[in-house]
Amino acid sequence: MFKSLEKVFDIIGEILAVLLVVVYIVLIINANFPFIENATVLNILEIARTYGSLLLVAVVGLEAMSKRNLVFQIIFLAMLAIVVVFLFFPDTYSNLIDLVK
Fold first, then answer.
1. What predicted TM-score, i.e. pTM, was given to this entire model?
2. What angle do CA 74, 77, 22 make, to 5 degrees?
3. Residue 17 and residue 5: Cα distance in Å, rounded?
4. Where do the H-state alpha helices sit in the chain?
5. Which of 13, 12, 41 has the alpha carbon at shortest distance from 27?
6. How many CB atoms lie within 10 A of CB 61?
7. Which residues are CB-contacts of 42 (< 8 A; sequence separation ≥ 6)?
8. Would you call 13 exposed, middle or buried from its count of C-beta atoms within 10 A (0-12, 13-18, 19+)?
9. Every domain of the chain and the residues it spans
10. Are 35 and 9 in contact (CB under 8 A)?
11. How many CB atoms lie within 10 A of CB 58?
12. 3-state secondary structure of 101
């Protein structure tokens, strides 16, 4: 399913990893020595830290699953979908629990 995209996922994962390290460094330095006064820039960096980590996990996972068979790829995509749904729609979890009770 993803066999031909393994190299693409590898390159994207490397770029994302470097960018996330830079974001983390800037945020850590800014926490100790506040130099970013613009709240919008700080908000963008916080969003990049939060969702960039999820994106990096997804890309690296897709790269790893490109070497596996279709069953493992489907399982990984299902788990990734669960994380994304609960991340973007937190009320879904409580609605699901209320259904079970």
1. 0.78
2. 145
3. 18
4. 6-32, 39-65, 70-88, 91-100
5. 41
6. 17
7. 30, 36
8. buried
9. 3-100
10. no
11. 19
12. coil
Paired tokens of 86: 């609960």
Tokens 């994380």 correspond to what residue?
A: 83
Question: What are the pLDDT digits (tens) for 12-27?
Answer: 999 999 999 999 999 9
> Residue 6 corresponds to which tokens in the numbers above?
């393994």
CA 95 to chain centre: 24
| Residue 2 confidence class, pLDDT cut points 50, 70, 90 | low
User: What are the Cα distances from residue 31, in Å, to 6, 23, 46, 90?
Assistant: 37, 12, 12, 28
Instruction: Take residue 18 and report the two structure tokens written for it.
Output: 């470097």
